[in-house]
Amino acid sequence: MTAYVLLKLVHILSSTLLFGTGLGTAFFMWFTWRTGNVQAIAAASRLTVRADWCFTTPAVIVQPVTGIALVHLMGFPWNSPWLVAAMGLYLLIGLCWIPVVVLQMRVRDAAAVAASTGQPLPARCTVLMRWWFALGWPAFVAVMGIFWLMVAKPAL
Fold this sequence. Notes:
Blueprint: H1 3-35, H2 38-74, H3 81-117, H4 124-152
């Protein structure tokens, strides 16, 4: 297996992991939130945060490392429009994802307290989840855009 094939495989697998984990945990978290079940929300938010640390974070790191190596190996110009667009979208995703992780941790902590004390979720959790939901959409669209750019490599 050549270095190129290995790097491309790792890049594709990590992008798939990044997208799949993001979509899966978002689906799980959002639909659990809508039930209003404090115990379920506590469990879902705890597992969503754990999945982000175990799967999403490593993929977030692997993506630029393998991407930079692939650009170097393939000799793509750094100012290629598709590459500049992909890097810009990746930064947008990061600008959305970092606050989302913080929001998830706040919901996790508040839900854990509410579940352990038998209390309802604090009202601020609704605000946190609205921000979480709002930040998820641009990140999701940006990931889809990057997938298209990686495959099509258009001149734009």
